[in-house]
Amino acid sequence: MHDAIVHPSGARVRWVELPGSAPARVYVHGLGATSAPYYAEVAAHPLLTRHRSLLIDLLGFGISDRPQDFSYTLEAHADVLATALRKAGVEGASVIAHSMGGAVATVLAAHHADLVAHLILVDANLDPYPPAPVRAGSSGIAAYEEEEFVAGGWKEVRDRVDPHWWSTMRLADPRGLHRTAVSLAEGTSPTMRDLLIDLTIPRAYLYPEGGEPAGAEGLRAAGVQVLGIPESGHNIMLDNPEAFARTLAALLP
User: Fold this and answer.
1) What are the residue ranges of helices labelled H in 44-126?
2) In this protein, which residues make up the domain named AB hydrolase-1 (predicted)?
3) I want to staple 39 with a disulfide (CB 3.0 to 4.6 A). Which of 27, 63, 156, 170 is the partner?
């Protein structure tokens, strides 16, 4: 395990690292997740093992620390991730990021251009959305007030989500989980989609085959490769790791 102090409180971001050559590949998890369980099988695939790989957890999630005086906005996550990557000696990386992590990675690429040379988003959030009336999933978490969620709303979410997601969500700090969900629902300014479109680095958006994501043609017009992965749902890397790994190998240098 590796770590870097990223916050005035002394809080640390931690990651699991697989050795290899530069440039590095950085894997970023989604809301309520953690990178090693989601990406280990793919990062260890024979087609992908030549490069150094960092399976990193954002503050508030997984094996990273949970400072209470941190905003947990997408922008703050991106800045902290940048700090950790610089302390790890990473530059010009290929960043592979899932769901909420894709939103963070898009902000990272826009605000810290030296760190990201290739960006691959995996069924990532690109647009703001209203809190959901059914209190499950990221939009459902954002429907709670923070104190309501911390006091017991998280138990209602636990009872509504699938056991696989809860297995990692239960590791998350409740305030960090809620604040991140609220920031994800509110989005960034400019939006994550606009930030992605304006980037000039190689970019790809992977989605579960069977229905193209909203705005796919606009992404393609901006030079983003939009690719469907067969036999998969939202957690593409878990549902079809072989196809996911082969797609990454074809996209990455």
Assistant:
1) 74-87, 100-111
2) 26-202
3) 27
Cα angle: 247, vertex 86, 15; to 5 degrees = 60
Structure tokens at 231: 């036999």
Q: Which amino acid is at 131?
A: P
CATH number for the domain spanning 225: value is 3.40.50.1820
Strand partners, 15: 2, 56
Residue with the larger pLDDT of the pair 12 and 212:
12
> Distance from CA of residue 127 to its chain's centroid?
15
Q: Is the per-residue pLDDT at 133 higher than 90?
A: no
Of 137, 141, 95, the C-alpha closest to 120 is 95
The total of structural domains in the chain comes to 1
Which residue in the block uniquely carries the two structure tokens 């958006």? 205
Task: Find where tokens 């989605």 sit.
Answer: 207
Range of the domain at 108: 2-251
Give yes or no for a contact between 21 and 51, defined as CB atoms under 8 angstroms apart: yes
Q: Which of 127-149 are b and which e, b meaning 16 or more Cβ less than 10 Å from the residue's Cβ?
A: ebeebeeebbbbbbbbbbeeeeb
* Closest residue by Cα to residue 97 from 18, 204, 7: 204
Give Cα 67 distance to the centre of its chain.
Answer: 19
pLDDT digits (tens, 9 = 90+) for 15-71: 999 999 999 999 999 999 999 999 999 999 999 999 999 999 999 999 999 999 999
pLDDT tens digit sequence for 80-119: 999 999 999 999 999 999 999 999 999 999 999 999 999 9
